[in-house]
Each structure stands twice: as C-alpha cells, then as structure tokens.
C-alpha cells in the first residue's frame, strides 16, 4: 500500500508546499532488505561513566574495521567520560568544541549509574549533540535492569532511563532518527552485540522509544558466520502466504534458513510459489483444526528433523463491539491467535521436536497493549500472547528462547482496506509520522532468531514507530 502523503512530503515540489502550509513532513526511513544483520558503518560516538560494567563489551563489539570510534570529553562540567584503548582507529572529541560535526550513531553506557544524581551525565552528554544527530540517526542507551540493581535508589536511576529514551526519541523522530534502550542483567553484556547492531542500523528503522531486555545466559558464544547466520537451520512461519508472514519467510531465507511456509489450504498456490522462490517448503494446513499441532509435528519431524525456529504469525480479526459480537467470532479469534499457538509449542516441547537452542517468535499487537474499539476478542488474544511469552521465558529449558513482536500500523493489504481518514490517522499517530513496512517486522524476527541473540528472552518488542497508543 503506497503512502502518497509520505511520497509527496519527500518530493522536491512537496517539500515547498508542506513548508508553506506548515504540515508535518515525515522523513523517508532507510532500510537494507538484501543484507543480513551486521555492524554499523562510519563514526560511532561512545560514552560511558565510571563504575560501568558494559563499556568494555560495547566498545569491543564496535571495534571493527568499518567503524571509527569516537570518545567524548568536556571541560564545562566535572563530568568525566571513560576512555578505552582499542585496536581500531579512534578519536577523542571535545563536546565543547564541536564546530560543524554531526553524528549518525551514538551509544551511551549508563550501567555505572548508582543514584539519581548520576542522571546529570545524560544532560552533559546529549545537550551539545542532540541537535547534531543526522537524518536517520541512531541513539542507543545501555542501562542495568532495575530489578537487578543493588538498591532501590540505584533501581530508580535505571528506571528513569526509560522515560528519557521515550522523550528523546520524540524530539529526534522528525528526522527519522531513533532512540532505544538496552537494559542488561550483569553478565549479559557479553551477549550485547546483536541487539546493539540491530538498534544502530537500518534494521530497526521503525523501532524507536523502546526497551530491549538482555538476560545473562550460560550458553557459550560460538563462532558465527554473520553473512548467513541461520545456515543449516529449519524454520516454520505460519500465515506465510502474504503480508508479514511472507516477508518474514523471505528474510529468514535470506539469512540462510530452510523455511517451511505454512498457511491455509485456500492459499496453497501462493504458498507453493513463495516456497519455490526461496528454496523452502510449503505446508497447507488449517490451524483451526483440532489436530493442527499433530499435523505439524508429523510432517516436519518425519521429513526435516528438529525445528530450530518457529514464527507464530498466523492470526485473524473478527471485529465487532462486544454487545454485537456473535460467539463464534470470539471463539475463532481466541483459538487461532492464542490457543493454537500454545498447543503447538506445548506438543513440540513434549515431543522434543525443538533443537536445544530453538527460537520461538510470536506476533502480538499494540492492540493487546492499548486495547482497541470493537476488538475485545483480538486485543484479548494478543495480550494473552504477550503474557504467555513472558511466562514461558521464565521457565524455558536448555537454551530455547521465546520473544514477541507487537506491530503498530504496518502497510499491508489489511490496513489498505481501512477507510481513508482512519488509515491516515493510523499512519501519522506515531513519532515517525508514517506506517511501518512488513520488512520492519521481519527484521525484528530475524534479530530474535539470530544465533548471537541468546540473551534476548521474554521480550515483547513494539515495532510501531512509537505509536501514541499503549504504554
């Protein structure tokens, strides 16, 4: 679905008209659909304060040939930012003498914060640079999970980072720039690379104002081929015939996975075509059938062995206000969107059909976070998915991880059928003033499936351009 407003706003003629009428001007977001997750390029400004526990690993993760690391200093306050010797080309810059310098990628390590007074460092670092962030720029702040802090006072300092990130992302969003937060459990900094790369690159184009939690894991870091990180992996994507599911199948295939594309029998021709295009397999199956989980298990296990990845994307809407909703509308939505997901996972776990480091990704919705008029059934099912993911992450065995993605307004055939004014409001009611693409959801799925993402478990990531709906 084309966003004509965005196209006009970014055209030469349109820019003049929008400026004359003082209309909001969305920025075209940069995306990289043909490449796997990798390190950012160019200059990266990295700052941290004393007593931190993540700065060394942040710097090590970014100490690559494609990056020039910048360390800041300032003379206008007593604030001292830490420095670190690296193997790459580094430079120290004075925040008081920036001249015409501008920044595309910025990382601030706040894991050393102990009290609310330490928050002053945010002001001294970001005040001189915030207006120098480039179009499509990326800011990442790293803190400690408040629940793992040593004292309530320290917890307050790290909890405060969320409010700062959400507000700063709104200030820089008009340029298509994003600001996000990584919260770490001590020891989890060794697993930070994939989340850091995702949030510092175009893979997270429609993710802003969000928090990603990274947990300590006993899994050993293995050597990863970042050009084909999912090579040798078998993935299932439900609802793969169109929209988000189709794009997700393509992206997982791009990353090296053998993808089983699953959808209802009515979509079998489209499903087979997609599977042929990406060198995968098709599985026509009605998830509403009582034995859907058994059919998946029997088909996949007998032909392809263990399952490394499953993406629960299939879902339906049956919208009516509750007073006018027929019972079968309620039951269909709860069954497809929630009950079937839990049944499939449970059976695959019981039959040991998952590999030891399997990835489960569920598609939730901001409707499940904020609620939506006429969608009590849908919002109920999607809130259930979010709760299920968090609970499963607490009890998951081996190195299995489970995460969820909550899309906002995404440009699909379904949203294309929404009445014009409602559709336009949906597009503009976020910090980036535009709808997201199915690619944005697929790239987020790719992050959670990445072998370097072992520490990402129990997250419900909103991919919504920081929609005004919900928390």
Précis, in short:
This protein has 471 residues and is α/β, with parallel strands linked by helices. The protein contains 15 helices and 14 strands. The protein has a seven-stranded parallel β-sheet with strand order 3-2-1-4-5-6-7, sandwiched between helices. A seven-stranded parallel β-sheet has the order 10-9-8-11-12-13-14, sandwiched between helices.
Summarize the structure in words.
This protein is of the alpha/beta class. It has three domains: 1-26, no CATH class; 31-214, Rossmann fold; 234-463, 3-Layer(aba) Sandwich (Rossmann fold). Helix content is 36%, strand content 19%. It contains 15 helices and 14 strands. The chain has helices at residues 4-9, 12-21, 55-62, 120-126, 152-172, 193-200, 243-254, 268-278, 292-304, 327-350, 366-370, 376-395, 413-416, 420-428, 438-449, and strands spanning 42-48, 67-73, 90-94, 103-109, 133-144, 178-184, 211-214, 234-238, 258-263, 281-284, 307-312, 354-363, 401-407, 460-463. The strands form two sheets. Strands 3-2-1-4-5-6-7 form a seven-stranded parallel beta sheet, sandwiched between helices. It has a seven-stranded parallel beta sheet with strand order 10-9-8-11-12-13-14, sandwiched between helices. α7 links the parallel β8 (234-238) and β9 (258-263). The two termini are 27 Å apart. The mean pLDDT is 91.
């Amino acid at each position: 679905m084309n966003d004509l407003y965005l196209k006009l706003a970014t055209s030469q003629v349109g820019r003049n008209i929008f400026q004359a009428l003082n209309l909001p001007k969305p920025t075209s977001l940069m995306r990289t659909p043909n490449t796997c997750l990798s390190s950012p390029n160019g200059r990266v400004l990295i700052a941290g304060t004393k007593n931190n526990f993540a700065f060394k690993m942040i710097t090590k993760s970014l100490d690559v040939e494609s990056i020039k690391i910048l360390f800041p200093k300032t003379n206008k306050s007593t604030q001292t930012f830490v420095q670190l010797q690296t193997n790459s080309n580094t430079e120290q810059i004075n925040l008081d003498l920036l001249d015409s310098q501008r920044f595309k990628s910025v990382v601030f390590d706040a894991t050393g914060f102990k009290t609310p007074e330490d928050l002053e460092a945010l002001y001294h670092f970001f005040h001189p640079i915030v207006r120098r962030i480039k179009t499509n720029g990326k800011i990442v702040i790293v803190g400690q999970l408040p629940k793992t802090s040593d004292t309530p006072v320290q917890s307050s300092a790290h909890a405060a980072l969320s409010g700062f990130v959400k507000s700063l992302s709104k200030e820089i969003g008009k340029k298509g720039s994003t600001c996000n937060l990584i919260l770490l459990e001590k020891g989890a900094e060794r697993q930070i690379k994939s989340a850091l790369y995702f949030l510092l690159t175009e893979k997270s184009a429609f993710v802003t104002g969000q928090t990603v939690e990274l947990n300590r894991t006993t899994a050993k870091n293995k050597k990863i081929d970042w050009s084909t990180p999912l090579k040798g992996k078998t993935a299932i994507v439900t609802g793969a015939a169109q929209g988000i599911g189709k794009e997700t199948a393509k992206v997982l295939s791009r990353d090296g996975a053998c993808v089983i594309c699953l959808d209802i029998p009515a979509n079998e021709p489209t499903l087979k075509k997609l599977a042929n295009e990406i060198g995968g397999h098709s599985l026509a199956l009605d998830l509403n059938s009582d034995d859907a989980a058994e059919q998946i298990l029997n088909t996949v296990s007998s032909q392809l062995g263990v399952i490394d990845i499953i993406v629960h994307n299939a879902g339906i809407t049956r919208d009516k206000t509750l007073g006018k909703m027929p019972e079968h509308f309620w039951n269909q939505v709860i069954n497809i969107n929630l009950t079937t997901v839990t049944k499939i996972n449970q059976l695959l776990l019981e039959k040991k059909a998952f590999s030891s480091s399997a990835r489960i990704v569920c598609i939730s919705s901001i409707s499940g976070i904020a609620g939506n008029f006429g969608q009590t059934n849908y919002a109920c099912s999607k809130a259930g998915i979010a709760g299920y993911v968090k609970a499963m992450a607490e009890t998951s065995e081996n190195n299995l991880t489970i995460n969820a993605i909550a899309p906002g307004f995404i440009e699909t055939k379904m949203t294309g059928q929404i009445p014009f004014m409602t559709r336009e409001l949906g597009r503009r009611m976020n910090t980036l003033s535009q709808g997201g693409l199915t690619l944005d959801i697929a790239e987020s799925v790719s992050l959670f499936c990445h072998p370097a993402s072992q520490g990402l478990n129990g997250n419900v990531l909103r991919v919504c351009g920081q929609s005004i709906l919900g928390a």
